[in-house]
Design a protein that fits this description.
151 residues; mainly alpha; two-stranded antiparallel ribbon
């Protein structure tokens, strides 16, 4: 599955290349759960290996591990491990995979959005209703998640 940049953004056109957007919202949800379990597990392991000290500041530890995990995985592969497991990846406004800098910026915006109920709620509504199924951070950056093309 490959695409031709048929839209003004350089992303696959949702009307002409529907296969890139089919089931992406539900896949993003499953990826989010998988990534949450991964970062929670790593945070618990770090807390145990620090002889329990990590549990004293566990929310901050989980936040930092999540930031590192998302930044590194998205910057390296344009997808977190959870996203890779469900077959989706991010693309920038030109249809290219993320760079490490864009991965960091997207992660920071995602973390801010996730920490605010109203912003997270708006992001969910946008994913379900916008043409490119973009969250608020995606709209700000001109990025989106698509089904992973076969290269």
């Amino acid at each position: 599955m490959s695409f031709h940049a048929t839209s003004h953004l350089g992303l696959p056109d949702p009307d002409l290349d529907r296969q890139f957007y089919e089931n992406v919202p539900s896949r993003r949800l499953f990826a989010w759960v998988i990534d949450g379990v991964i970062t929670l597990s790593v945070s618990i392991l770090v807390s145990v290996f620090t002889l329990g000290i990590g549990f004293w500041f566990f929310p901050i530890l989980w936040l930092v591990i999540g930031l590192i995990y998302r930044t590194v995985t998205i910057g390296a592969d344009s997808a977190t491990w959870g996203m890779s497991m469900v077959g989706i990846e991010f693309r920038d406004r030109n249809g290219r995979r993320f760079t490490s800098g864009l991965g960091l910026l997207h992660t920071v915006l995602f973390t801010i959005a996730s920490g605010t109920f109203l912003v997270q709620f708006v992001s969910i509504i946008l994913i379900l209703t916008t043409r490119y199924q973009q969250s608020l951070p995606d709209m700000l950056l001109g990025t989106t998640a698509i089904n992973r093309p076969i290269d």
